[in-house]
Amino acid sequence: MSEIPVEPPSVLATPRSVGDALRTAGYLPDETIAGTVHLAAALEKPVLVEGPAGTGKTELAKSVALATGARLIRLQCYEGLDEAKALYEWDYRKQLLRIQAGGAGRSDTEGWEDVEGDIFSEHYLLRRPLLEAIRAEDDVVLLIDEVDRLDVETEALLLEVLSDYQVSIPELGTITARRRPLVFLTSNNSRELSEALKRRCLFLHVGYPSPEREREIVLSRVPGISERLAGQVATAVAALRQMDLKKRPSVSETLDWARTLLLLGVESVDGEALLRHLNVLLKHQSDIESARTRLTRDTRPR
C-alpha cells in the first residue's frame, strides 16, 4: 500500500517556529512579535502594526512572506488613494476597442447585445492590490502600508475586505477570497484609526528595540562588524533616543551608521565618532544642533 504523503508543518504553526523562520529570513523578532504572527495565521485575522517610523513594521511583513514562501502584495497608502488604485478599475481602452470591433457592420442594437456581457467580464478588469490578494490562488501576504495616511472615507473601503475577505463589484457581484491572505497593516499613528477597523485586527506595537536586541539586529544585518562595535553603536543610539528630538533615530538609521563605521574602518565608538556622524543618524538640523550641544557638554572635561 502506498503511503499517504504527510504535509510538512507550517512555519507559522507555533510561536517558536515563527521566531525561527523569521530569524532565518533575517528578521529578529521578540516573543510578542512571534506570538502575534502565529495567532494571526491561526485565527486568520489581520495584524495592525503600530509604532514609530523605521522600527521594522514593513520589514516584518516582508520577512513573513520570505519565511513562508508566500507572494508579497503591497498597497502603499497615501492621502487621496481611491478605489480605482486600491481595489480595481475597468480597462476602458480595451472595452472601447471591443465595442468598436463588436459593432462593426451591425446595427447599434445588434452590436451592443453581442458585447454588453463581454466588456464587463474579468478579462477587462484591472486588479489593484486588494482585489489581487482576494483573487490569488497561491499563498499571499498582503501589506497595507501606512494605513493612517488614508482618508477616512477610503479607510472604510478596507472594512469589507478585512471582515469577510470579499469585495463587491456591481457588474460582477461579490468576489470571495479563494485563499485568505495573511494581512499586515502598518501605521505610524499619525492619526487615530476607526474602531471598526481596529476591531478586525490583532494589535501589535513595534517600538524601538532595547540596546541588547538592537545589538543583535546590527550583528545580523551588518556582515563583518565586531560584537564590541555593534554593542557600542546600539548603546550610543539608545542614548540619542533619550534626548528631546523631533525625530529619534530609527533602526534603519542605526544600521546605516554601523555600515558607515565599518566602511571607514572605525573600530571603536567614542563621543567624537558620534559627533562626526550625527547627520547619518538624525534628519533635522535642529536635532543635530541640539544633540551636538548636549554631547559636547557631556564629553567636556570637568
CATH superfamily of the largest domain: P-loop containing nucleotide triphosphate hydrolases
pLDDT < 50 runs, ≥5 residues: 1-8
Determine the N-to-C terminus distance: 84 Å
Rg, Å, rounded: 25 Å
The major pleated sheet works out as: 5 strands, parallel
* Number of strand segments: 9
- N-to-C SSE string, H for helix and E for strand: HHEHEHEHHEHEHEEEHEHHHHHH
**Order of strands across the biggest sheet?**
2-5-8-1-9
- Estimated structural class: alpha/beta
Strand content: 5-15%
**Helix proportion range:** 40-55%
Gross CATH architecture of the largest domain: 3-Layer(aba) Sandwich
Overall morphology: elongated
Task: Kindly identify the CATH topology of the largest domain.
Answer: Rossmann fold
**CATH class of the largest domain, anyone?**
Alpha Beta
Mean pLDDT: 87
From the structure above, extract its key features.
Rossmann fold, 15 helices, 3 domains, 302 residues, single chain
Describe, in plain words, how this protein is organized in 3D.
This protein is an alpha/beta fold and 302 residues long. Helix content is 49%, strand content 13%. The protein contains 15 helices and 9 strands. The protein has helices at residues 15-24, 31-43, 57-68, 83-86, 92-103, 108-115, 129-135, 152-164, 195-199, 211-221, 227-241, 251-263, 271-276, 278-281, 285-299, and strands spanning 47-50, 71-76, 88-90, 125-127, 140-145, 166-169, 173-176, 182-187, 202-205. A hairpin with a 3-residue loop joins strand 6 (166-169) and strand 7. Helix 5 crosses helix 6 (108-115) and helix 10 (211-221) packs across helix 12. The termini are far apart.
